[in-house]
Structures are given as structure tokens and as C-alpha cells.
Design brief:
Blueprint (H helix, E strand, L loop, with lengths): L6 H9 L4 E3 L1 H9 L5 E6 L8 H15 L3 E6 L21 H8 L2 H5 L9 E4 L1 H4 L4 H9 L3 H4 L3 H8 L6 H17 L3 E5 L3 H13 L6 E5 L25 H9 L3 H11 L4 H12 L5 H17 L1 H16 L9 E2 L5 E3 H8 L5 H9 L3 E3 L2 E2 L6 E3 L5 E4 L3 E5 L1
Parallel strand pairs: 2-3, 2-5, 3-4, 5-6, 7-13
Antiparallel strand pairs: 1-6, 8-11, 9-10, 9-12, 12-13
Length: 399
């Protein structure tokens, strides 16, 4: 495939939505050389969903694809048995092979919403790790020192606090590094929180006689809670496969302060237009809600199509701004004529636990047929057709 070395395209690829590049000068030379580069991006299947946080890196991978380079997608089914320790204060609960297989079964179809999977090279890292004998692990481990492994800030913090770091977690950076050796990566894309893993990988490639990969790190997308990075473990994420109405509502819940990151990292809107939007808001010519609605419309359109996105916008306006009921309200079968309000919310799936349900109730976030219900001890007498509203946008009907 012909390589596109257009200076403006390269500049945009290396600057928009980029936190740091190691080594930028070398990478620019590589991209200007006309050589097809191998661009690695890895995802560990710790849960069934690829989300918008992953899309930041996947979109950058697609930009390299569009320039004619080879996308190499690594699904870390083997490394997920350990769990990435980056940024964690405790060990990650282990998953078994059956759980991992179940999690990753739709990963390629989800990734295809962003990258061209037909032109990509796709691997599970069990391809090389499972066929290697124990002597391979011994050889790999002999190339690194414990001092280098535990110099990581996350390990140091846990050790100082007296929290254990397992031997398996020490293996993770080595195994992730070997992925780049196995697929002969020229460049690796990933979140900035992976910086130490990526730098470790450069050392590994050198020890195996390969050229050191360049690293392109993207910013971390803050989740809809407005405080922590979008993460499956935190639960503040938006699925790529989410249906249009829910995705639109979730995007509208993003704090105004984070809206511009979503515009820059998740849309193709030119930076000049984004800056113009900011100025309009600063000059009170545009309401932040309206700008956010443009952002949500654009992102939903990418994953669900223009018609579904427009329908989602109209539904959002009708329900949240006009106070009307949604056009499609799911039904919940209680099976009882009387039920505690907390049990009802958990049974309906709008609360993951009774403690979460209690918080919703005491914060006046629950209504039954329009009446606020703030007594968490209340036993409701249920009737078929009653409408329960949770927050501004979640509804269900009793059946």
C-alpha cells in the first residue's frame, strides 16, 4: 500500500490528541521515509466492552492506517490472567480463561467501529506465550532486574504503604514488552498512564536485538463521573456498542469542563471550530448545553449513524428539557403487590446495590408516577402501568 507522507497529515497525526511522543524526531523521520510502519495497540479483555476511552487510542491507530501504515491490534488474553498493575493501589482480581474468552468474543466487531479490521493484523498474545516452554520465561526474566521493575511509582507507593505487590504483577511489564518483540512493533500507541510499561518495552526490544519502538501516548479520557479516567473497573464508561439514546444521554452527563477533551479526542471537528465554540460560550453567545449537544450528536452519529443520533437528540430534548415521558419505556415484572423501594430499584437494574438505591432515594432522585419518594424504608403498593423515574433520564414501567 502506498504511504501518505503529506506533511500536514503527519503533523496533525502527531499533534492532535497527543500527550507525549518518544522519540518524536525519530518518528517524524520514519513517517517521512515512505516505509510502512507497524503500529501496535493493545487491549486487555478485562470486561466485555470496548469504550470511548479505548476509542481515543483506536482513532489514532486509524489515522496511521489512513496514512498507509499497518495497524497491529493485540488482544491481551494471556496478560489479562495477570492484570495490568499500572496506576493501581491494589492487585487486580484475577480472571479465569473462560471469563476472558467470554469478554473478548465481540472485541473485533467493536474495534471495527473505529479501525479497518480487514486491513489490520490482529493477534491474541496467547499465540506466542502459550506455545513457549518454561525456559522461555526464565530467559525473558533473566534480561531484566528487580530494581528496574520496582522503580515504578505505583509499585513504590504500594510497598511504602505495606501493600503487597505480587510476583505475577512484576511479570506483567515483561510480558507486555515481549508483545512488541513478537509483533516487531515500530510504534506503540496507548494511554499516558502506560508510560512506564512503554519505556520498559523499548529496553526489552533492545535486549532482543530489535530497534526500539517509538511511543505515541494519548491523554486519558475522563469518564462521565468527571473525576477518574474512563474505566471498566470504575464503571464510568460509555460503550462503543451502546444504543443511541443512552449514549447521547451519557454524553450529555459529561461535565462542561471535560466537553472540550471529548471534542478533541473523539470527533473530527477541526480545532479552529472547537476554539470558536469556546469563544462563543465565553462571550455568552452560546449556552454550554447547546455546544455539548453538538458534541453528543457528532459522537453518537459515528457509532450509531446520523439518523439514530438525530432521534436520540430529539428524545433527549423531549424528556429532559420538556419533561415528557420517553417514547419507549422498559417494563419490569415485580411479581409482588408490595415491594420495598430499594428492592424495586435493584430488581429493575437501575441500582447495582441497596446502598446505591438508598443514595438515590434520599437524594430525591426517585419518583413514582411523578411523586418524589425519599423514604428508603417505604414499602410500595405496586400497580401495573406505574411509571418509576430515576434521575432525569431513566424510566421503567411496572408490569
Amino acid at each position: 500500500m502506498e504511504i501518505n507522507a503529506n506533511p500536514q497529515k503527519i503533523k496533525e497525526t502527531l499533534e492532535r490528541g497527543v500527550e507525549e511522543i518518544v522519540d518524536k524526531n525519530h518518528l517524524e523521520k520514519q513517517m517521512n521515509s515512505g516505509k510502512q510502519l507497524r503500529i501496535k495497540f493493545g487491549i486487555d479483555p478485562t470486561a466485555p466492552d470496548i469504550h470511548l476511552g479505548h476509542a481515543v487510542g483506536l482513532r489514532k491507530l486509524r489515522q496511521f492506517q489512513d496514512l498507509g501504515h499497518k495497524a497491529v491490534l493485540i488482544v491481551g488474553d494471556f496478560t489479562t490472567l495477570i492484570g495490568d498493575p499500572s496506576g493501581r493501589t491494589t492487585s487486580r482480581p484475577p480472571l479465569n480463561e473462560a471469563q476472558i474468552r467470554d469478554n473478548m468474543k465481540d472485541y473485533i466487531s467493536q474495534a471495527s467501529k473505529v479501525i479497518d479490521v480487514k486491513k489490520a493484523e490482529i493477534h491474541c498474545n496467547s499465540e506466542w506465550f502459550k506455545k513457549e516452554p518454561m525456559s522461555f520465561l526464565m530467559d525473558l526474566a533473566s534480561r531484566f532486574t528487580v530494581a528496574r521493575l520496582i522503580e515504578r511509582e505505583d509499585f513504590q507507593k504500594r510497598l511504602k504503604e505495606g501493600t503487597d505487590v505480587s510476583m505475577l504483577e512484576l511479570l506483567y511489564p515483561m510480558l507486555q514488552a515481549y508483545d512488541s518483540v513478537a509483533c516487531r512493533a515500530d510504534i506503540e500507541i496507548g494511554g499516558y498512564d502506560q508510560r512506564l510499561n512503554f519505556l520498559f518495552t523499548r529496553r526489552a526490544q533492545k535486549k532482543f536485538g530489535q530497534d526500539e519502538q517509538d511511543i505515541l501516548m494519548v491523554p486519558l479520557l475522563i469518564g462521565i463521573d468527571g473525576s477518574k479516567k474512563m474505566s471498566k473497573s470504575v464503571g464510568n464508561y460509555i460503550r462503543l456498542d451502546e444504543e443511541g439514546n443512552k449514549m447521547f444521554t451519557q454524553l450529555m452527563a459529561v461535565p462542561d469542563s471535560q466537553m472540550w477533551n471529548y471534542f478533541e479526542l473523539l470527533t473530527d471537528r477541526p480545532k479552529k471550530e472547537i476554539e470558536n465554540l469556546k469563544e462563543e460560550i465565553l462571550e455568552n453567545k452560546k449556552h454550554p448545553r447547546d455546544a455539548k449537544m453538538e458534541m453528543a450528536l457528532e459522537i453518537v452519529s459515528m457509532y450509531r449513524g446520523a439518523e439514530a443520533s438525530q432521534n436520540a437528540k430529539e428524545e433527549f430534548v423531549r424528556v429532559t428539557q420538556r419533561g415528557e415521558l420517553p417514547s419507549d419505556i422498559p417494563s419490569v415484572e415485580t411479581g409482588e403487590k408490595e415491594i420495598n423501594i430499594l428492592d424495586l430499584l435493584v430488581k429493575a437494574g437501575v441500582a447495582a446495590s441497596k446502598s446505591e438505591a438508598k443514595r438515590l432515594v434520599v437524594q430525591n432522585g426517585v419518583r413514582l408516577d411523578g411523586e418524589v419518594k425519599n423514604d428508603w424504608k417505604e414499602t410500595l403498593k405496586t400497580k401495573k402501568g406505574q411509571i418509576v423515574q430515576v434521575g432525569k433520564s431513566r424510566f421503567f414501567k411496572l408490569n
